[in-house]
Amino acid sequence: MFGRIKGGLMKHQIEYVCDKCKKPIPNSKGFLWINLDDIAEYRIELRVWITEGRHGRPPLKPRWKAHHGKCVQVREPIRSVRVESVRDERGLMRVTESLMQKDAAWLSLTDWLDYLRSVAYVGGTEWFNGSPR
Predict the structure, then answer these.
(1) How far, in Å, CA of 41 to CA of 61, rounded?
(2) Which of 1, 13, 5 is nearest to 119 (CA)?
C-alpha cells in the first residue's frame, strides 16, 4: 500500500564536511566513497568473529568517507556518490535504491544504513565530519 504525502517531502539540506580538510563540500566539488576491498576484509573479519563464538566486540563496519576531489586520492576499487546527489532525503532514497540494485548485500556491510537512520531520526547533518565516528 502506498500513501501520498501532503505538501511533499520535508526537505532538509544536508551539508557534507571533508574528512581531510574539515571544510564544507560544495556541489560538484566532492563525493562520498567507500573502498570495496575494505568491505571484503570486513567480511573475512566478521566470519572469523562469528566462527570464534562472537567473543568481544564485533569488527567495525567499513565507513563511507566524504572528501573534496582535491583532498584525497582513493584506492580502487571504490563505489562513490557525488555530494550533490545526496543533499536531501529524496536524493538519499534515490541513491540508496540505486546502490541496492547493484548488490544489497555489500551495502548492509557498510555504515550507509546507519547514516540513513541518523538522517531519519536525528537529522544526520553531522555524520560525514567525524562526529559519530
Answers:
(1) 10
(2) 13
Is the residue at 63 inside a domain? Answer: yes
Residue 59 within any structural domain of the chain: yes
3-state helix, strand, coil in the chain (%, to 5): 45, 15, 45
Residue from 74, 77, 66 nearest 30 by CA: 66
pTM to 2 decimal places: 0.81
User: What element of type H or E holds 121?
Assistant: helix 112-122
Alpha-carbon distance of 78 to 89, in angstroms, equals: 23
Dist CA 81 CA 112 (whole Å):
12
What whole-number distance in Å separates Cα of residue 129 and Cα of residue 133?
9
pLDDT greater than 60 at residue 25: yes
